[in-house]
TrEMBL record, chain A:
GO BP field: cell adhesion; visual perception
Organism: Pogonophryne albipinna
CDD domains according to UniProt: peripherin_like_LEL (cd03162)
Subcellular location: Membrane
TM regions (residue ranges): 20-41, 62-81, 101-121
UniProt cross-references to PANTHER family, sorted A to Z: PERIPHERIN-2, TETRASPANIN
Name of the protein described by the UniProt record: Peripherin-2
TrEMBL record, chain B:
GO CC terms, sorted: plasma membrane
Organism: Pogonophryne albipinna
InterPro entries noted in UniProt: Peripherin/rom-1, Peripherin/rom-1_CS, Peripherin_LEL, Tetraspanin/Peripherin, Tetraspanin_EC2_sf
Similarity comment: Belongs to the PRPH2/ROM1 family.
Pfam families linked to this entry: Tetraspanin
Keywords from the UniProt entry: Membrane, Transmembrane, Transmembrane helix
Lineage: Eukaryota, Metazoa, Chordata, Craniata, Vertebrata
Any one GO biological process: visual perception
Membrane disposition: Multi-pass membrane protein
Protein name: RDS/peripherin-like protein xRDS35
Subcellular location: Membrane
Disordered: annotated segments: 339-359
TM regions (residue ranges): 20-41, 61-82, 94-122
Record keyword Zinc present: no
Amino acid sequence: MALMLVKFDMKKRVKLAQTIWFLYWFAVMAGVLVFSMGLFFKIELRKRSELMDNNESHLLPNVLILMGLIACGVNAFGGKVCYDSLDPSKFIKWKPMLKPFLMFCVGFNGLLFVTALLCFVMRIPLQFTLAEGLKNGMRFYKDTDTPGRCYMKRTLDLMQMEFRCCGNDHYRDWFEIQWVSNRYLDFSAKEVKDRIGSNVDGQYLMDGVPFSCCNPSSPRPCIQGQMTNNTAHYSYDHYTEELNVWKRGCREAMVSYYGGMMNTIGALVLLVTMLEIAVTIGLQYINSSLSSLVNPEDPESESEGWILEKTVGETFTDIMANMKAMSKGGKVEEEAEAGVATVS
Amino acid sequence: MVLLKIKFTQQRRVHLAQGLWLLSWTAVIWGAIIFCLGVYLKMELLRRDEVMDNTEIHVVPNILIIVGLASIGTNWVASCVCQDSLDATRFPRWKVFLLGWFAVAAVLCCLLISVVALSFALQGRLEESLKVGLRNGIRFYKDTDVPGRCYQKETIDRLQMEFRCCGNNNFKDWFEVQWVSSRYLNFTSKDVKDRIRSNVDGRYLLDGVPFSCCNPSSPRPCLRYTLTDNNAHFNYEYQSEELNVYSRGCRQALTDYYMELMNSTGPGVLSVILIQMSVILGMRYLQTAVEGIMALEDPEGESDGFLLEKGVKETMEDLKVKALIMLQFWLVDPIATEGSSEDADLEKAEKEASPTPAS
């Protein structure tokens, strides 16, 4: 007994073919959408690859681009087949290719689903890459004269201003590294000598942050230096001061930015997967309804359409039997050859 | 003698109608594009409303929006006329509207040309408006506790960061205003008292700028205070330091931005003018050709299409005569009523005068 049997007359078949043709063109545009989302994500990762130590994994955008291209091709082919299905003479040439094509579509839909899951899962490795990259980025903030790192300061400043964040986890991360280049430190001054002497590595550490951490919403002009010293500034208490610098850490900001992007892309890919499954089922109905005509000579006769010729269980056992037969057939051939060899 | 006469066969008339139909739909789409451009320009101007003193420049996007909508309507009507033009029963109902249509289309073209002219002419007014607006913004930067001005600081900071500019003309504008609120000044300290006494108005002036003036491309951490004092910072020379703070003034930055925006709409507006004029010309030819055919009562025959029935001079003369007739008609009527009332007065006076000698 077939799975989800539906009776078709000529009019119904025509309507089905037209609907599925229309849906296939929709699916081509969905394929273009997936491709462009992959491209957009790749560009976004490239833009900030400096902050991720050039270590970020481009697996997800590459997979999306590939899936988008394959989807465009597959759906365009499916649309052509649907268009030709209304004309029996043209449909004949596509008939032998349909079964393998449908199997390929089923496999492709599975891969699309896996891609959608990948979008949600890849957030975790990205988090670790960002944490490492930002920590190193902050260390190289002062190296504006080192080739290869001279733009790190600008990149970090622009990022902190754009994402409204400061430091890796919070602004105190800047207190632990030297972010002022030695070229601008007067080593003969007492203050500088004190600060350098105050720690093991001989670094010039200050309780101050770069200007890009400043919050424009603050009612008072930004306090960047001597942030932990309440007496250095009039009417200032660094425990209660909230609007002075950005409170959020940049790792959290970037992760939520990229995470949001990946969630959106994952949701869209899921929708595209469902559309692909729908058109695959539709094509299967077209195929089965055209191959089961009651009167093969009369194109206007009635027919039946189904998703699977037998039930799920029977189809599964059939596939297993086929695979066993193929492997046995291989074995029998080998034995025959061996027999022939021994005989000869 | 007719102006630019062209012979139209049945085939040519059909082609003209079809071509014009397509052209008018193209013009509808361009009208929609002009409308969107106008809306976008208006939104961009409204975003920076707080640093502009007046809204004179808003006339450019307003005209674009009106012209865009009117162009969509006008060209849609044109496409309907084209569709009906080949059907002798349906065309007559459009005959009445066509003169009005030509007038509206001509007005649209004039408005579009005026937009291009205005966007150049108003540049000076825009700069003036920005100058005053930015000056106020900088003066009220510190008033984060005054209702109505408490967001001035945030607006100016975000503006300077986004447009990479500092101050009105340059960063020295910040040296001339007190941009630190008095709430955060310790009036007992010597430095504050010195600075306040150093000028007539008693303002706390510094040779420093807000953090939003800092340039991220600078190789050294941003120096914001005591900018004119070379000794205050190690390895620093005020005259040669270029990358520390933004050197461009915000007035220049904003003017350049808006001029660029308006100039980029220039080609779009010019192409709409060209398309509209070709629609007008095509419509005139179609109108005269179809009217000629309807007069001949032979749908398959030939007819003449022309721009003006008589030459340009003769048409102007005709129009002048018509206008004078209308004017005279309007003038003669009041004179006639005045004349009749004068006669009545004269008669009355005579009547009054005549009885006296008798009595």
